[in-house]
Specification:
The complex is a heterodimer of chains A (about 170) and B (about 300). With about 170 residues, chain A is mainly α. Chain A has helices at about 1-20, 35-45, 50-65, 75-95, 100-120, 130-160, 165-170. Helix content of chain B is about 35%, strand content about 25%. Chain B has four helices and 14 strands. In chain B, helix 2 packs across helix 4. Classes of the chains: A mainly alpha (about 170), B alpha+beta (about 300).
C-alpha cells in the first residue's frame, strides 16, 4: 500500500512537471501559465506523511531545477517550503474546506514571490522583470482555478482518509 | 491533535532540506552550472525528453484548439460577418486556421535567410521552462545536429535567443527578453549603436551610446554584437526618444520575433570566437550538421540545400 502511494505520488509529480513544461509552450493566457508542478506538490502533500511530503516537495523542486537553467536548489527550496506549509495547514483545510481554495492561492502566491526574491538574490534578476507582479499573481489565480480539478484527483488516487488523518502523524 | 515531538521531527527535516537546497545553490553557482550539476542536468533532461515528447504529442491538439479560439477573439469583426454564413463550421474552422498558421510559420522559417552563408538547423520548440520567470525553451535538436552552447536562434521575425545548454538530442535556449540577456544592436536607419536589455515580458529596454541621434518609432534594430551574426533583426523602437539633458537616451523596443508563440526556430551554426567555422579552442571539432539547410543567394530565388 505504501509503495503504491509512493508510486502514485511520483507519477503525479512527473505528470505535473511534464504538463507544466509542454502544455503551455504556446498556450499562455494573458502571458502567464499555471504553476502546475507547485499545485501537484501541494496536492500530494495533503495526503502523504509529513516527512514523505517534504521529500516530495524537495524532489519535485529538484526535478524543476534540473529541467531549467536556474541555480540547482532554487525550486527545491521553494517547493520544500510549499510542502511544509501544506503539512502545517492541512488539518485546518480538512476542518474547514472553504479555506482550501484561498489557501491554494496564498501558498502559490507566496511561493512564487519567494522564488522571485531568491532568484534575484542568486543572480537571475527575477525582480528586474517588468511583469513580475503579473507573473506571480496570474499563476496563483490559475492554480486556484485548477485546484478543483487537481486536488480531488490527488485525493482520489492517494486516498482521503488513509493518507489524510492517519498520514498526518508520520 | 497537537503532537509536538512529531512536528519537531518534520521541522528538523524541513530545516535540513532547506540547508541542503542552499548548499546545492552555492555549489552550483560556484561551478557556474558546470560540474556535477551540469552532468545531472544533461542526464535528467535526456531521460525526461521522451516524457515531454509524449506529453507534447498528446497536448498539441488541445493547445491548437484553444489557440484557434483565441485567434477568433482577435478577428471578431471578420468573424461576425462569417458567423452568419458559417456558424455551424466555426469550431472546425478554428482548428483548420490554427493548423494552417503553423504550416505557414514553418514555410516562412524555412525561407528565412541567415546572414552570410551560415548553416542553420531547423528545430521545433518542445517544452518551456518550469515557470514564466526563466524564459527558457527546449528544442528538439541538439549536439548530434551540430548545435553547441551560445549559438543564436532566430525565427521568421528575427532573433529569438541564444542556446544555453545542449544534450545529444535537445537544446535549451534563453529568450532575448530574459532580464539577464543583453544584446548590442545597431539602428538600421542611422547606424547608431546601443544595448538592448531584456525585461522579462513586454518591451525590452534600449539604451543608445550616442545620445545625440534621436530614435523614431518603428526604427528597426539589428544585431551588432560579436556573439551574433551582424544584421539579424532584433526589435523595433516602440517609442520615439530624444536625449534628456544630453546624458542618456533610453526607450523601449518590441522584439521582432513572436516570442510568446514561438514554435519553429532556426539555430544558426555560429559562435562568436569562430564566426561560423568549426574550429573552437579546447573542444573537438563539431560534426557537420546532418539535418541542416544552407542558404545561398538571396531574395525569392533563395535555394535551400539539404
Amino acid at each position: 500500500m505504501k509503495w503504491r502511494r509512493t508510486a502514485v505520488a511520483v507519477a503525479l509529480v512527473i505528470l505535473g512537471v511534464a504538463l507544466q513544461t509542454t502544455l503551455f509552450v504556446r498556450l499562455r493566457p494573458f502571458g502567464a501559465t499555471p504553476a502546475l508542478a507547485l499545485l501537484v506538490a501541494l496536492a500530494v502533500s495533503r495526503h502523504l506523511g509529513q516527512v514523505p511530503s517534504l521529500a516530495v516537495g524537495f524532489c519535485t523542486g529538484l526535478l524543476l531545477d534540473l529541467l531549467s537553467e536556474t541555480a540547482l536548489g532554487l525550486w527545491s527550496l521553494v517547493l520544500t517550503c510549499v510542502a511544509y506549509a501544506t503539512v502545517r495547514l492541512r488539518r485546518r483545510f480538512e476542518d474547514d474546506a472553504t479555506l482550501l481554495i484561498p489557501g491554494v492561492f496564498l501558498i502559490s502566491l507566496v511561493a512564487l514571490a519567494q522564488y522571485a526574491l531568491l532568484g534575484t538574490i542568486f543572480g537571475e534578476q527575477t525582480l528586474a522583470d517588468a511583469q513580475v507582479v503579473r507573473k506571480m499573481l496570474l499563476p496563483a489565480v490559475y492554480n486556484t482555478v485548477l485546484s478543483p480539478l487537481v486536488l480531488p484527483l490527488a485525493t482520489r488516487l492517494l486516498g482521503e482518509r488513509g493518507g489524510g488523518r492517519r498520514g498526518i502523524g508520520r | 491533535m497537537w503532537r509536538p515531538s512529531r512536528v519537531e521531527r518534520s521541522t528538523a527535516v524541513f530545516v535540513g532540506l532547506i540547508v541542503l537546497s542552499l548548499m546545492l545553490i552555492t555549489v552550483d553557482l560556484r561551478a557556474s552550472g558546470a560540474g556535477l550539476g551540469g552532468i545531472l542536468r544533461d542526464g535528467v533532461q535526456a531521460a525526461f525528453t521522451p516524457v515531454q515528447k509524449a506529453a507534447a504529442f498528446v497536448t498539441r491538439p488541445v493547445v491548437g484548439f484553444f489557440e484557434g479560439i483565441s485567434d477568433m477573439v482577435g478577428l471578431r469583426d471578420e468573424n461576425r460577418r462569417l458567423r452568419l454564413q458559417v456558424a455551424d463550421l466555426e469550431r472546425r474552422l478554428a482548428e483548420t486556421e490554427s493548423l494552417q498558421r503553423r504550416v505557414e510559420e514553418l514555410e516562412a522559417i524555412l525561407a528565412v535567410e541567415p546572414p552570410g552563408e551560415l548553416d542553420a538547423v531547423v528545430a521545433r520548440v518542445l517544452a518551456t521552462g518550469p515557470s514564466d520567470f526563466e524564459g527558457i525553451r527546449l528544442i528538439d535538436k541538439g549536439r548530434r545536429q551540430g548545435i553547441t552552447v551560445d549559438m543564436p536562434v532566430i525565427d521568421e521575425g528575427g532573433l529569438v535567443g541564444r542556446v544555453v545548454a545542449v544534450t545529444a538530442t535537445t537544446a535549451r535556449l534563453r529568450l532575448i527578453t530574459h532580464p539577464t540577456m543583453r544584446v548590442a544592436v545597431r539602428v538600421e536607419r542611422t547606424g547608431e549603436t546601443g544595448i538592448l536589455t531584456g525585461r522579462g515580458g513586454g518591451p525590452m529596454q534600449l539604451e543608445m551610446f550616442n545620445t545625440n541621434a534621436a530614435l523614431v518609432q518603428g526604427d528597426l534594430l539589428v544585431t551588432a554584437d560579436g556573439r551574433f551574426p551582424a544584421g539579424i533583426p532584433v526589435a523595433r523602437v516602440a517609442e520615439a526618444a530624444r536625449a534628456e539633458v544630453g546624458f542618456s537616451l533610453r526607450t523601449t523596443a518590441t522584439p521582432e520575433a513572436e516570442l510568446s508563440r514561438v514554435d519553429y526556430v532556426k539555430v544558426l551554426v555560429f559562435t562568436s570566437d569562430r564566426g561560423g567555422s568549426s574550429e573552437e579552442e579546447g573542444e573537438e571539432p563539431i560534426e557537420p550538421p546532418r539535418e541542416t539547410t544552407t542558404t545561398t543567394g538571396s531574395g525569392p530565388g533563395t535555394t535551400l540545400t539539404p
